[in-house]
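Supplementary material to the annual report.
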Amino acid sequence: MEKTFNLPQSLVDIPTHYCPGCGHGVAHRLICEVVDELGIRDKIIGVAPIGCAVIAYKYWDFDCCEAAHGRALAVAVGIKRCRPEAIVFTYQGDGDLAAIGCAETIHAANRGENLTTIFINNTVYGMTGGQMAPTTLLNQKTATTPGGRKAKFEGYPLKISELLAPLPGVAYIERVSTDSPQKIIAAKKAIKQAFVNQQQEKGFSLVEILSPCPTYLGMKPPDAAKWISEVLSKEFPLGRIK
Amino acid sequence: MKNEKLNKILITGNEAIAEGAIQAGCRFFAGYPITPQNEIPAYMSKRMPEVGGVFIQSESELAAISMVMGAAATGERAITTSSSPGISLKQEGISYIAGAELPAVIVNIMRAGPGLGNIWPAQSDYFQATKGGGHGDYHNIVLAPSSVQECFDLTLSAFDLADKYRNPVMILGDGMLGQMMEPIQTKGHRPHTKGPRSKNQKPWAVTGCAGRAPNLVASFRMAEGEMEKHNIHLKNKYDEIEEKEQRFEVFYTDEAEIIIVAYGTMARIAKGAVKNLRAKNKKIGLIRPITLWPFPKKAFAQSPRPNTQYLVVEMSNGQMVEDVQLAVGGRCPVEFYGRTGGGIPSEEEITKIIYGKDV
Amino acid sequence: MIEKIICCGFGGQGIMVMGKFLSNLAIEADKFTTYLPAYGAEVRGGTAHCMVIISDEEICAPFVSVADTAIIMNEPSLSKFENRIAPGGLLLLNESLISSLPRRKDIEVLKVPFSDIAVKLGNIRCANTVALGTYLSSKNIAPKEKIDLVMDKMLGGLKQEVIEINRKALREGMKYDKS
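Predicted assembly:
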């Protein structure tokens, strides 16, 4: 019988450290599938963030570099400018990209750095214990908003993708999710586009992935997926932003 | 004595550091404007494109040092420059660079602090530079030039040391040294190459894994015992650096009753005082640390007399004095004189402190 | 020999260029030299100054606390730097812009209308070159051909008329000296 579903060559075959139902594993795999399909494993360099995905490089069988919290795009800029022939991407969470790394994100995008960013938006800080993220929804309970996020004190969910879209240096932004097989297929297509853009030197490309964190949403994995499609996607609408 | 013209050019200390970096094969600069080091980014913005290198004016010092980390991770020789408040911001990235064992050169043209302080020359970042600065168990190699020629020469050394030990190297100057001009010789040091010169020379670099197993550049070590093992590895490296890389200049220390200890700008001023006093038969000398870390303990291993007095002179409230005390080990008295906040002790002032008015 | 010089005036008078010229000349004359500018907010408006040392021996402190010569191009600089001249030292004064008289009696004062001479030559901005001419004819720093060499080097790349006017300015300034 023909084997039709394989582990991507770029994905290391080890047990996951992520929680059951976490979206990181899906996102990691999609990146690896795209890397294989584009045949870029020997020239890709990944920049891992600080957050749950801090050891993303354990799963990726290609060159990787660490960055301080929020500085993934700055590190990626240093790499890409020295090795323009390499394909360089950052993999960042909402805290890394939209809070502590906001300046690095905006300026890398505004300079039109020829980079790919995979942005995991799960509305909480996972690694540190489920604190409020810039993308946490209003009234959403977290470790640091026990009564729910209140606009008066914590402001509103930050839509960084929409914020970046008007910048002339930005080539492509799309928001996708991983809450159903169909949406995962769409997510892969967007990730592929973001890498192809870099191959074609189009400038800054970003894919925002709405990703479940059942542990800190306090939900079972299927409920977390449902919450993404029924609640989170209403506040952060899916589709091409630029 | 004649100072032969040769190929000398008149250049500021800041520009000498920048040109030194270019001639050391550095092909990546990222930095953020701050006085009194702005001549460096200005020079780099012109020079880097000429040699096929990269110049980036970053959005912040935080970004600049992380850009340098990325560039260094690819094996490229990379530099960032700033002045005191900006160097405080860069401590985050310096700690990561030390942890990930990347070679990089960081320049601090010091101004007075704490806080915004002012833009005048100071030496008040000695503790920050030599005792770590950022978080964690690590050391920068710290070089302290005292002339514009040395700004150039030590920048060449800085890149070599950074590569040799895979460690951040800091060049610690001050506003006066950065801004002043002196004639220097820059030609004939290194072959001048265009574009990245370090390609494939560093087997650990991230360049894409074609033809080899993937490389990882990281400081994170979570597994039990792994970080301690890494810290011990770093400690062994620092011990080796302490043993092999101490540099200093001694000036007229024979039979000295008094030895001034000073570095950088302060050392050249102290040297003037020593020269004048020796001409008046005073038995006085100078020890000038060139490496501030490793501190040149070897220079203090033996004192010229059992009762030689050491006088540490600094443009701070006394930050190097503790290292001198440790090096002297209680054998001889160690005194301190300093000015701070942009104040600079003059030759006359130093003389007066030592001998009173009547010399 | 060691010669310590302070050049001062206001931003835009080419004070820093004067200092760099003297240091470049020192290099041509196989001397040691340092040049230390005032930097920061002070160089925009207000007074600007730089300190130059020329010596047969290696120079230690680049800072000039007591100058052998001060070239003072405007009024506020006179009150600021008059007391920094060594007894018996030389003061070159831009008579065009300074009406008060120096209080010091123990120094040699040479008053020359540098700015007026520059205006007559067609460009007030070459007053610094006139002053350099006077200084160089008063002090034996380097022979004439070295001065011309440095002048050509520093003016290289500028418009021909700018080069010409500066050459003239230097010659005009040289007509004045302390003798």
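Strands of chain A lie at 44-48, 63-66, 87-93, 116-121, 124-125, 131-132, 170-177, 204-210, 239-240.
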